[in-house]
Amino acid sequence: MMKKTDGKKSVAREQLLVTASKLFFQNGFHAVGVDMIAAESGITKMTMYKHFPSKDHLIVAILERSDELYWEWFESTIHQVTEPENQLIAIFEAVAERHSSSPMSTFCLYQGVAVEFPFPEHIVNKAAVAHKQSVVKRLESICKQAGLHSPELLALQLFLLLEGFCMSSRFFGADSPVADVVNAAITLIKSYR
Description:
The chain has nine helices and no strands. The chain is mostly helical. It folds into two domains: about 50 residues, Homeodomain-like (Arc Repressor Mutant, subunit A, Orthogonal Bundle), CATH 1.10.10; about 130 residues, Tetracycline Repressor, domain 2. Keywords: DNA-binding, Transcription, Transcription regulation. It holds the Pfam family TetR_N.
């Protein structure tokens, strides 16, 4: 009996995460209320509050899931590439390829958080900042492995290039300059050899 209840909770939690993610993606965080999430998911508000004490906690859980998916994608992208410098380029090629096949795939929930939850002490902002800082640190680690000069600075610049591409793709959609982001990354990396 206990396992069935746990299973139902897991199914309910999963449904809430999927539904809320879709709604936040389509409408923004503040435009979506708990009533809308409950109605769209078919999960009662009482059940929702058993899993997430507040809408903000639900958003944090979505960001944490997004973080896990991001790192699975990131590590699988560089897994087959042996040279660290080529790993950096592979990241940009993969981002460009994802964008070419689905322009909205470069939509970044974390950038949405920066706009809608700008205060650093807010739990949603903290979750987004933690993810972005981990991206910079991982890029820095690869830059160090590649033996590139000023790995901290290069990692930050590569991060800014990724963020800028994600944001520009929101403006330009399918017309976003996909090849340019790869060429810009290659030029930037070469300048730190």
